[in-house]
C-alpha cells in the first residue's frame, strides 16, 4: 500500500483492516498538530488524496 501511494516508512503506519484504512502514528519526536476543532491530527505533508484517489487505489490493489 505504501509503495502504491508513495509513502515511505516513517511518521505514519497504514494498515488495511477489512475494508478500512487504519492510520497510526508511532511514538516519534514530531508532535501532532491541533486542528481548528481541537483534534490532534498528523501534520499535512503537501500531498492530497481525494475519495476518488482512495477508491482507485483500492480497486487497483484488489485486482492484484
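Q: What amino acid sequence fits the structure above?
A:
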Amino acid at each position: 500500500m505504501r509503495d502504491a501511494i508513495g509513502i515511505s516508512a516513517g511518521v505514519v503506519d497504514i494498515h488495511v483492516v477489512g475494508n478500512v484504512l487504519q492510520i497510526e502514528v508511532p511514538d516519534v519526536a514530531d508532535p501532532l498538530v491541533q486542528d481548528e476543532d481541537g483534534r490532534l491530527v498528523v501534520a499535512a505533508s503537501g500531498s492530497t488524496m481525494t475519495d476518488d484517489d482512495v477508491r482507485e487505489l483500492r480497486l487497483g490493489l484488489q485486482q492484484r
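Q: And what stands out in the fold?
A: The mean pLDDT is 76.
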